[in-house]
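Predict both folds.
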Amino acid sequence: MCFKMDPTDDIKMIGKYIRLKTASRLIVASPPSHPSSNPPRHHQLSTAASTRPAGFVQVMTMEIKVLSFPADSPPLLVIAAAKLAGITIPTETSGSAPTFSFSNGSKLQGTYVLLRYIGRVGNFYGQNAYEAGEIDEWLDYTPVFSSGSEFENACTYVDKYLERRTFVVGHSLSIVDIAIWSALAGKGTGQRWDSLRKSKKYQNLVRWFNSLSAEYSDSLDEVTATYVSNRGLGKPTAAKSKEQQGVKGDVSEKGKAGSRPSFEVDLPDAEIGKVRLRFAPEPSGYLHIGHSKAALLNQYFAQRYQGQLIVRFDDTNPAKESNEFVDNLLKDIETLGIKYETVTYTSDYFPDLMEMAENLIRQGKAYVDDTPREQMQKERMDGIESKCRNNSIEENMKLWKEMIAGSERGLECCLRGKLDMQDPNKSLRDPVYYRCNPIPHHRIGSKYKVYPTYDFACPFVDAKEGITHALRSSEYHDRNAQYYRIQEDLGVRKVHIYEFSRLNMVYTLLSKRKLLWFVQNGKVDGWDDPRFPTVQGIVRRGLLVEALIQFILEQGASKNLNLMEWDKLWTINKKIIDPVCPRHTAVIEDRRVLLTLTDGPDKPFVRIIPRHKKYEGAGEKATTYTKRIWIDHADAQLISANEEITLMDWGNAIVKEISRDQDGNVTQLSGFLHLEGSVKTTKLKLTWLPETNELVNLTLVGFDYLITKKKLEEGEDFLDVLNPCTRFETAAIGDSNMRNLKRGEILQLERKGYFRCDVPFTRSSKPVVLFAIPDGRQQAVFK
């Protein structure tokens, strides 16, 4: 179902949908009915993108002169939103409702009016018109928190709604999150909420509240200390007066702590409904994380301007390309949720390109050159004209036909544009337009012996396909002049170029040529190897696409070059998987220790317990209780004689005897149950497994970076910084419920970390293979 939205009108949508992706499945959220007020309606959305739509209302920002409000009731949500947006606003107390006074004499009045204003200028009003509509629904509902009798009902409703969500609306912070957080933290409800937080009644709401409090602690702590504490009473403290001397209340300043980058920039000369973009990968490898940014950025602008997006394969080099890469690129594009109009190929335009090349030869704007490649490169660097540059048109046409035929003479030649060999921009120094290549093309076989270069084909095909804006990473900046010059010489329509920064990751190679080396030399298992930065590789490692999209959207459309840490991406991923992934138990095989409980059950018994104590959707598991249990050797080494320990999901036990070998390693333990003991008094809370024949053999696999240097310098050979050991395997045993794991399922091994099942259970002799998922803090260490 699709909705055509006019962003300048009030948006009224019946049967709203929201995309909610948990693990690898879409689920429909069915919030409970509310006894009071009318809570927002939320359903499943047909589009997967989280982007601002075409023509989203741009707010004309003015300098906010002052925010005034009654001394005993500061608008905490407005102040917090402004703080998170990086907007410094002087404040003063008054007897009237909260009011913004602007430098031109205009005023806005009312808490939620002011909040909506900050939401728009601070980019906290959703990523598209649909999300803005959702936000409006929630803001109509939020005041119910101030109704004393309905406070807990509101907490119940929002707690249920947040069961599988990180933010209330979409995948990023919005003024709804700020409004609800402020309603809970405010002076009128703060003490009541603090009391409820200590109970287990609203676990999802508490998780969400604590997450925001930690993520934006610098800003929120200052706001609550100033306006919620007993000494504040709504009156600014000295710290606040210092703020009044700072930057004026406009939005030219980038957000400080808690603010988030976005793609909120404009395409040059873009018109609503007339924008046509292309995502144009070369089919010479799989889609990687850098390509993902380009794909999502193209989709963002296409949707924002109510335009079109096509996928085009720039298949101009048959030596590197294959149908395997085409198929997998389309698979990766689908994985990212990219919606496109059609798929095209540069090879569809080979006849047109050859005709254009011949026209340039006849016009004296191109020539055939047989200068050896190395010499040609040197001459271009030095600004030296080729000996062939002034050949006659007849001679050029003769050699061009030799190239088309793929003759021995033709193979010595290339076609170059006749631009300017003295131009300071070396890309304009007679670039190569065509090269001979006798290798068959993956789509059209051996029909052609000559192929256009990307630099020549792209400007023509962009114009031919009606592309209005070509999005290119800033590494192509010096070639933009070449792009425009070729379009001028060909006499085609000019296409606007919009640059964005390439996404670079630490300890990561994104060059397809270098990645291919790892594949061809057996250093990895393939393009979907978990050590690879390809979409398939990082998904196989355990990254949810939702986390990848959120990570890339947070980077925004900045043109500044940046080197990103993987930790941030994996931290986002953890926030999504932790609330929902099931819990299981494993014990490391090496030197595992048997603990005998003298008063343990003579006959094993089974209890059915949740796979996730805070998420019923994870299902249940069967836990067997036996007289003898296995624990990790590393845990056994920490136990002292007569120490009381806690056996997770069972209760306390007291260890009486410890047997060791000659090297001091613990070999056996014995003790007795002490189930009436308090888990609060024990230092060690240990995972364990029963001594049964139903346990599952596991192989836990951890990974390291492929190279040992954060960033390769220009000219540095990646072969010099190869990491000699990048895969680590540890044998373990797991609980019997792990026989039911499916490939791709994400789980947590308690006290060991998060894992993705890569090879599920088939038979007892073949171990289940689990890939360790980074959590953004440290490398996985299995013990």
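Second protein follows, with its predicted structure tokens after the sequence.
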Amino acid sequence: MSESEPPPYQIQTQSQDHDSLTLTLPLLSHRQRSVNSTSQVAIVGANACPIESLDYEIAENDFFKQDWRTRGKIQIFQYIFMKWLLCFLIGGFVSLVGFFNNIAVETIAGVKFAFTSNMMSDRRHGMALLVFSVSNLLLTLFAAILTAFISPAAAGSGIPEVKAYLNGVDAPDIFSPRTLIVKIVGSISAVSSSLVVGKAGPMVHIGSSIASLFGQGGSRKYGLTWKWLRFFKNDRDRRDLVTCGSAAGIAAAFRAPVGGVLFALEEMASWWRSALLWRSFFTTAVVAIILRALIDVCFSDKCGLFGKGGLIMFDAYSANVSYHLADVPPVLVLGVIGGILGSLYNFLLIRILRVYNFIYEKGIIYQICIACTISILTSFLLFGLPWLASCQPCPSDAPEACPTVGGSGNYKRFQCPPGHYNDLASLIFNTNDDAIRNLFTKDAMSEFQLTTMLIFFVTCFSLGILSYGIVAPAGLFVPVIVTGASYGRFVGMLLGSHTNLSHSLYAVLGAASFLGGSMRMTVSLCVIILELTNNLLLLPLIMIVLLISKTVADAFNGNIYDLIMAVKGFPYLETHAEPYMRQMTVADVVSGPLQLCHGIEKVGNIVHILKTTRHHGFPVIDASPDSESSVLYGLILRAHLIALLKKKAFLSTPMRLGVDDAFRHFSADDFAKRGLGNVDKIEDIELTDEEMEMFLDLHPFTNASPYTVVESMSLAKALVLFREVGLRHLLVIPKITSRAPVVGILTRHDFMPEHILGGSGGGLIQLLHMGLTLETETLAGED
């Protein structure tokens, strides 16, 4: 039977989980989307990859129930104990990686700046430029080649990919050991190359990768497996560990354990519960304790060759803060400016990503050329701009050596004569962490000039946008902080004696406003900044700035990570339904064909279904004893069907198989979820003609209690159910029992606005938009 001629058990009604169908990339294609083709391929890191959905729902079949009934108290205790043990291991490993990254960046950058500064002191300016630019180029080239050829999934910050995973989107290689290694090494190289990129975003990805590897018991591909870790055989448990890993990443990047938990809650996780709160808090506490034990190395000025390191950035501002009611209006203005600039930053960044991706389609060589071009541009700007600043005499009461040569500090000499310093070089010829520390410092009220702050702000704003899209690990947190701190200090200097607040406090508030305007987080950012600055007195001002900047920026566009997910093509399910979804039923969006399996099915039919479709869930029907019509028995997953075929426990006659008989042929490990991207394929299974005529009893392995909705349910209500429960398939059943037992299956792609607006319901949606404007505005307010 050809693929165009459906077998008798095929019903032309609904689309199932099409995980690798028509290529539709928002960044790659400007063509009109066709029905059922939204977001089947997404840009993961730097490359376009087919994506799938995750099975967060537990398949409660007879085999699963019997497996749990056979577990004793010791096994249950071991299961719970392993969760806490893995949280401890995740916290320990992430903290060690964070400290190692900090040491490596400070050392590599320190060698580069030491050589350059010494040559500048010797008046060998041309050689200094050559050493500075070539070292930056080599570091960037190394990161780009490593990422492009070994693991393209490691490009970017990784936060959009992790956030999409926690929402239920499975992308290949995002948590593989190869990606983890490239992310660590590439992040160190990229940050050390003076690019305006950060290491906080990559740390979130690194923490999530470590958690994922522990959750799946290691990597079979690379021979790194631990049998004693293979307790978490489903996506639900691994999702919780990845959430803890993302919280640990922020905690390790900023030494902000509480901020890490709140970041995972506010920004990353789509599902949250009290048990997960406890475990993520425990994970970040482990990070904080281990970093506290290691931070003494930094306090003794041995945290790398160059400076004290970003891990003690929180000590930068610890002065007593006193402010009055008259100081509030400038703070409000600062929040408005942060919202406008943050939304502009997001708008320009997305446009640059689209341009880069258009160029990246031409091949890897173009990806590397873009990275090298940005590196050369950055080097020439960072070396040339300080020449525009005038030399300042060293203050007599300077809290540190002035001028500074060959190390981090507030008073870089650069091209100035002895006893003078270049204030712009003090910001540029430092790592980003040390630049932030210099902007936050309370002892440098008159250190910087207005023109210096303006030049530094424009430079960071522009280079931050240009640098993020290169094929290398690159975060957004630190560039946004340093950009916001520069314009915040600029505003403070403009106000001068008209305010009681110090310039450094305005730098902190500027960083908060720009973070709120770009990333749109409030609670987590507030706590992270408080833990960074180690000053609780800043709380009221930071809260006001974050609320205002987020409110203003929301009027223009969304937060930066959601925008990046959208242009990358991830089918992310939002927390709220679009107003027009209330005017539609689930029957309006289902389409065919739908493949069905019988409770006892012929092997040849199963092979035909698996080979001719890419669906990942199939309804199982049985004949009704009271009538000639069929009844719905449940839902079976593609992975389980392949596992049954691979085991070849076939029946010569169509007979019902008991649960005890199933346990003799199969074990729970046969149906355990494999690592990300590692799935068995039907093409790899070889069957004889005789075996194709045999039978399989699907009843013990079918989820007999799948979530179902009636076809008249509103699409908005179905979306809430689908997202809150974390489903991959939602069965649609008929309202009239005399019809077929299943109308169709809803997957996450059916809820995407691109699918609904671009499909057969597009005309209906346009009418709804024209005729129900007032109603949709009211509903949007209710949401």
